[in-house]
Amino acid sequence: MAKRQRIEPGPGQESVWDYPRPPRVEPLHARVTIELGGRMIADTTQAVRVLETSHPPAIYLPPEAFVEGALQPAEGSSFCEFKGRAGYSDVVSGDVRAPKAAWHYAAPSRGFESIAGYVSVYPGRMDRCTIDGETVQPQEGDFYGGWITANIVGPFKGGEGTWGW
Q1: Which residues, 6 or more positions from 154, have their beta carbon under 8 angstroms from its beta carbon?
Q2: CATH number of 41's domain
Q3: CA–CA distance, 146 with 155 (Å, rounded to integer)
Q4: Structural domain that includes position 80
Q5: Per the structure, how many domains does the chain have?
Q6: Residue 4 within any structural domain of the chain
Q7: Is residue 2 domain-resident?
Q8: Is the pLDDT of residue 164 over 70?
Q9: Is 18 within the bounds of a domain?
């Protein structure tokens, strides 16, 4: 499948096709919440977002934003050409466990030091994720963990046929 045409952003919107490559990390001046198992498991105004061409922003929260016990180490890792080696965590709330639903970079590559220890989650594996009260839509696919809000336009990498963009 060929890359679809860039959607022109409207007022107050941004296109993921205007995001840089390599990615950029910037503060997110908003309240971010995550719910799982019917409970709020994370709440912060200290999140950052990673912006990369063709991807909805990945939102990273400081570890102290999560309630105690919500993040439990999981086996395995992956490698990002920009950020380095990522480790994974299961996200737990009561009797609900979302395996490998969170990731972090303990020692990220040069230029990404500001996300060291910060945690991102796959919003599609949570009950609900919000940015300033708006419920986030998850990025398609099972590899990328972008957070889509009304002010972000694509098309987005991640869905079927977009792997080679």
Answers
A1: 4, 7, 15, 16, 17, 54, 56
A2: 2.170.150.40
A3: 12
A4: 14-153
A5: 1
A6: no
A7: no
A8: no
A9: yes
Q: What is the mean pLDDT of residues 100-121?
A: 97
Res. 128: pLDDT tops 80: yes
Rounded CA separation 46/70 (Å): 18
| Cβ–Cβ < 8 Å for 60, 32 | no
Calpha distance 77→100 (Å, rounded): 10
Q: In this structure, is residue 20 part of a structural domain? A: yes
Side chain identity at residue 153, one-letter code: V
Nearest Cα neighbor of 48 from 141, 136, 102, 113 is 113
Average pLDDT, the chain: 94
**C-alpha span between 29 and 57 (Å, rounded):** 14
- Give φ, ψ of 6 to 5 degrees: -55, 135
Note the pLDDT tens digit of each residue in 23-59: 999 999 999 999 999 999 999 999 999 999 999 999 9
How confident is the model over 82-110, as a mean pLDDT? 97
